[in-house]
């Protein structure tokens, strides 16, 4: 298939977030699967993402890396999908996209790795403490049907994926508000399609 939009991914990675987003915008795209430790670290791919990590996208001559940035980019590149609010309404949209990419990711990673920030050092750590991040996020997902208000947006693809994985892998508290929020997202046709595509690309375990 000839297309100017390419997804660089591995089916067992955060690339699933971007696949979901691509299915939401309904864009035609081609997928390149990269393997951990080999093609992901090869010079050809390091020219796309010097971090040697997936996902990344190339859209014509534009390369975007970092899941949250890719979700935001695709929402703007394909405005007909209506996945980004008007500029004047983007306060919550940007806040939660960046909150999830920064404080939420870091809080979950530290907790998973058993890193505890001493109380007297929390003021210098971007997320403060894990419990506070959970409380703030719990309120946010309970305040409106979607994270940035009444309409589903790219921020839901990103933050919803974190919540889904957090609940699935036990890296986040199983709070009813998180479960109710994910229930509103999980059967979106684009999410189901993306999961099916990534599952089909996942090597089967014997
Ligand atoms: N901050 C990046 C994280 C990307 C990332 O860590 N990807 C992992 C897979 S989920 C990866 O490619 N790891 C391979 C490696 O580090 O060698 C994003 O949000 O896109």
Automatic annotation (TrEMBL):
GST C-terminal domain segment(s): 86-206
Domain of life from the UniProt record: Bacteria
Pfam families registered for this protein in UniProt: GST_C, GST_N_2
Residue ranges constituting the GST N-terminal domain according to the UniProt record: 2-82
PANTHER family in alphabetical order: GLUTATHIONE S-TRANSFERASE FAMILY PROTEIN (PTHR44051:SF21), GLUTATHIONE S-TRANSFERASE-RELATED (PTHR44051)
Protein name stated in the entry: Glutathione S-transferase
Gene: gst_1
């Amino acid at each position: 298939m000839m297309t100017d939009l390419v997804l660089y991914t591995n089916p067992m990675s955060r690339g699933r977030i971007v696949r979901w987003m691509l299915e939401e915008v309904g864009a035609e795209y081609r997928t390149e699967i990269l393997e951990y430790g080999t093609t992901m670290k090869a010079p050809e791919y390091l020219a796309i993402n010097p971090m040697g990590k997936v996902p990344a996208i190339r859209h014509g001559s534009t390369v975007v890396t970092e899941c949250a940035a890719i979700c935001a980019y695709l929402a703007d590149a394909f405005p007909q999908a209506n996945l980004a609010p008007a500029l004047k309404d983007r306060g919550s949209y940007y806040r939660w996209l960046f909150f999830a990419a920064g404080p939420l990711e870091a809080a979950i990673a530290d907790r998973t790795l058993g890193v505890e920030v001493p109380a007297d050092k929390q003021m210098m750590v971007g997320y403060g403490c894990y419990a506070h991040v959970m409380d703030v996020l719990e309120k946010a997902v309970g305040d409106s049907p979607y994270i940035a208000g009444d309409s589903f947006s790219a921020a839901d693809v990103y933050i919803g994926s974190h919540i889904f994985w957090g609940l699935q892998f036990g890296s986040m508290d199983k709070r009813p508000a998180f479960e109710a929020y994910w229930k509103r997202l999980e059967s979106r046709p684009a999410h189901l399609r993306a999961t099916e595509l990534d599952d089909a690309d996942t090597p089967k375990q014997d």
